[in-house]
Structures are given as C-alpha cells and as structure tokens.
Amino acid sequence: MGTDERQRLAALRGYRVLDAPADDELEAVVRVAATVAGVRTATLNLIDEDRQCQLAPAGLAGTVSPRADSLCAVHFREGEFVWVADAAADPAYKGNPWVDGRRGDIRFYASAPLVTPQGHALGTLCVFDSRPRELSDEQIDRLKDLARVVLALFERRRQARVHGELLRSNGELEQFAAVVSHDLAAPLSVIGGYLDLLADDRDGALDERAGGWIAGASRAVGRMQGLIEALLTYARVGGESRVRGHAELGEAVDQALLDLGDLIRESGATIGSASASATLACDPTLLRQLLQNLIGNGIKYRDPARPCRIEVAAERCGRDWLVTVTDNGIGIPPDQRDRVFEMFARVDPRSRTGHGIGLSTCRRIVERHGGRIWAGAAPGGAGTTISFTLAGA
C-alpha cells in the first residue's frame, strides 16, 4: 500500500463515518441528489482498503460489498465527476456485478467524488437508475455542490467530536489538578517539614553521611513539588475560562521580569524589550505567564561561556502580532524544535533542569488564543528564538 493510500484511509477513518449510522442531514442531501438527477436511487459510497460501504442510501437497502465489485472504485481516486448514460454499453462498467445482474441491473450511473481539502478521495455521492438517462450541465454542477455539502457535514461532525473530546479532556485535567493539589502536594509538604526538622540537628546526633541523605531527600521533595506545580499550571491553562481583553506586551514583559527577579539577579541575565507599542487581544494573566515561561527558559538554558542576554521583540503581521523571545543560550538542535513543545520533552533527558512542561504550557496558552508557536535558531545561530502569534487589539 502506497503512502497516498495510507493517508487517504487515515483521512477516511478520521471522519468516523464508516460503519456508522447516517444523521438526518446526510440522508436529506442524498435524497436531494436523487431528485436533482431525476432518479429514485442514490447513496454515499465510502471506500476503504477492501470494501464499499453505503451510507444514507435512498431508494435501496444499504449494503457493504467488496471494493473489487464497486462501480465507484473504478475512477473515484481521480477526483473527477463521472457519468455514463448506459453502463452496460461502457467497457469500463459492463462486466461489473452491479451492471450484469449479479448484484444489480444499473444502466445510468453518475458519481461526484467526496474529496477532502487535503485532496484525499473518500468515496462518492452516487446516483443511478435501471434505465439509461442523460445529465445536463446544470444537474452535474448541482451534484458537485451536494458532494461539497457532504464533506462540510463530515467536517462539522468531526469538529463537534474534537470539541467534545477537548471539553472532556479539560474536565479530566481539572479533576487531575484537584487530586494533585490535595493527594500529592499535601503529603509532600509533610515530608518536607520532617526533613527540615531532621536537618536542624541542634544536638549533633547526625553524622555527615546522614546529613547528606537528608539534603538529597529534601532536593528530591523540592523537585517533585516543582513538577506538581508545573502540572497544575498546565491543567489550569486548559480549565480556566479565558478572559477576553487587551494587554500591552511591554507591561506584560515588565510583570514577568518582576516575577523572575531572583533568577535574573542570580544569573546576571540582561533582558531587552522593544515591544511597548504592541497591544494584544488576549488574557493578560496568561500572556504574563507565557512570557515568564519563555524568558525563564532562556535563563535556565543559558550558555555558561557567555553572559546571558534575552531580547523580546514584536512586529505587526497583518491583523496579528509576531512576538519573538531570543536568547544566546545553548540552543535547540533542529531535529528537536518541534518535540520540545510536547509534554515532558527535554533536549537532554539526562539534565535535571526543568520538568519538560513549560513549553507545553506555552503552546497551550497560545493555541487557546488561536495563535501559533514555534522554535528556531537565534540570528547568527547562537541560541534560540521562540516565536508566537497572537491577534492584535
């Protein structure tokens, strides 16, 4: 099976219409198609690896038959409207079981391909009759229109399913956040408290080795608490209702820098911003969180061989703003620049720096606002530029 066929089948299965009952709207479209063609029988023929599945048939009982027997399978991959006045007189169809009496006695046959925006043919909107017929140009155009309506209904059904899955996912994340905040965070706080008491060895009862164990355990508790907080932040981004408002990018940068004050002072990082004039249509709190994560990442992954420098800039791109956060740090290899936005992804899995959640949270924030985010090399190649788009106010 070639790559194109695998992609076509993936697209077909992505709509989840195979072996599924048709809704009233699809059935109505098929009935209208029969009326337009002046016939009593019509159907949607969906074609997978080895079957033709009839969906929303009008004037006949729907069947599943081998792909090898399908009239529509002869030309549907070409994506062109096909019709013959008398299939029994056409060399391409006269030996087909649907024509020669083994399955049916079709004479007039016409099919409008169901082609996705990506060019994948799923099957056809098919009309047929047991008597020879002709089609006018007007009828052909209307049948093509109806095929496009079918694709739009498929897409609407898919979007509704995705939206429902997203709502369910966000609900599960909210439940997860509640469990994490109580059932995991609380015991860790207790453990941390006892470790602090042990570390405060006023009587000198602990030797140096025991003190090292306690210090190591305390660091592990701190890392786990940081991971829990990062997971909670990720969950809250999906669960909270978004505030619709405007935010000045320069002001959001200043707020993020206040939050990162200790880290900036410890690292000696220099932060530059040329974005005061950018006004974005977004949730101000989430924008601040987004910038805090990106600037904080630039500091965490700085190159020890040079002073840390981070630049925040913005430029107008039509109705959107393109915002960039550029650092001169260790950089991200080209083959990792997509993967770093996945949950728990790290460029160096052996590194204990970060939890692999920060950039996932950034992507979640940007996509909630209808924008895009991506990583690239900094100008000159030393460091990383994270770019994202948000709508302008």
UniProtKB/TrEMBL annotation:
SUPFAM superfamilies: ATPase domain of HSP90 chaperone/DNA topoisomerase II/histidine kinase (SSF55874), GAF domain-like (SSF55781), Homodimeric domain of signal transducing histidine kinase (SSF47384). Keywords: Kinase, Phosphoprotein, Transferase, Two-component regulatory system. It is an enzyme of class 2 (transferase). Its EC number is 2.7.13.3. Its main location: membrane. It catalyses: ATP + protein L-histidine = ADP + protein N-phospho-L-histidine. One of its GO terms (molecular function) is phosphorelay sensor kinase activity. Transmembrane segments: none annotated. It is found in: Cell membrane. GO terms for cellular component: plasma membrane. The keyword Hydrolase does not apply. Coiled coil: none annotated. Pfam families: GAF, HATPase_c, HisKA. Residues 179-393 form the Histidine kinase domain. PANTHER family: PAC DOMAIN-CONTAINING PROTEIN, PHYTOCHROME-LIKE PROTEIN CPH1. This is histidine kinase. It comes from Actinoplanes digitatis. The lineage of its organism: Bacteria, Bacillati, Actinomycetota, Actinomycetes, Micromonosporales.
